[in-house]
Write a structure and sequence with these properties.
23% helix, Pvc16_N, DUF4255 domain-containing protein, 225 residues
């Protein structure tokens, strides 16, 4: 699913305020070596953190229905993960980089929720929307200063982009065919009693009333209840 999120982000960043701009979108780590090799303006979206959103974890099973609304499979609810990207702009001057970051904000802020129809096949097939949060309060364990230090580069203006996506939980289980007939209940009497008739869809209290129970009376004789 991660590579599909990359495709979605690349498509988003090349639209909106950046339509027909010719700005490339890269996903490599923005190290010094990478920065030295670039020869054109680029927006870098570096995936620096992946962790589960445990607050959205659910138990139980989900039903998978066909085109006739019949349950054909059952599966576990998907697990939700937060993909955190470090978004930076790389040009020859700081002013141009700031313009690119402003364009990224203008492009992503209106797209807080992406419906399944706008997602790639495998991700959209889950029928769930993806949320996009940009420049929010950083809640991850690592600070941006630590990230830049690990990359071996100097601190640059950046945007924190968090995409929360579902990840399918396998396996799926085939569901049994739908029930088309009522249940048949047959109740027999105790030894010596005449057999009782059978019927369909008996209610629980009707079945209990039809049962015969024998017990011992104080005088030694049997009694019926």
């Amino acid at each position: 699913m991660i590579h599909e999120v990359d495709e979605v982000l690349k498509s988003l960043l090349k639209s909106g305020a950046l339509t027909d701009s010719g700005i490339d979108v890269a996903f490599e780590a923005p190290t010094r070596d990478w920065a030295a090799r670039r020869n054109a303006p680029v927006i870098n979206t570096y995936l620096y953190d992946i962790r589960e959103d445990v607050g959205r974890r659910h138990r139980g099973q989900m039903s998978v229905r066909d085109e006739n609304d019949v349950v054909v499979k059952r599966r576990r609810p998907p697990r939700w993960f937060r993909l955190s990207y470090l978004v930076t702009a790389w040009t020859k001057t700081p002013q141009d980089e700031h313009r690119l970051l402003s364009a990224v904000l203008a492009t992503l802020l209106p797209r807080e929720t992406l419906p399944p129809s706008e997602l790639p096949d495998a991700l959209g097939a889950l029928g769930l929307s993806v949320t996009v949060a940009v420049a929010g309060t950083q809640s991850e364990a690592r600070s941006f200063a630590e990230i830049w230090s690990a990359l071996g580069g100097e601190l640059k203006p950046s945007l924190d982009l968090v995409v929360t996506v579902p990840f399918p939980a396998f396996p799926e289980y085939d569901a049994g065919p739908p029930v088309t007939e009522g249940a048949t209940v047959r109740v027999g009497g105790m030894e010596g009693d005449p057999p009782m008739s059978e019927g369909r869809s008996h209610r629980p209290h009707q079945v209990l009333a039809a049962r015969t129970v024998r017990g011992a009376a104080p005088d030694g004789r049997t009694k019926r209840q």
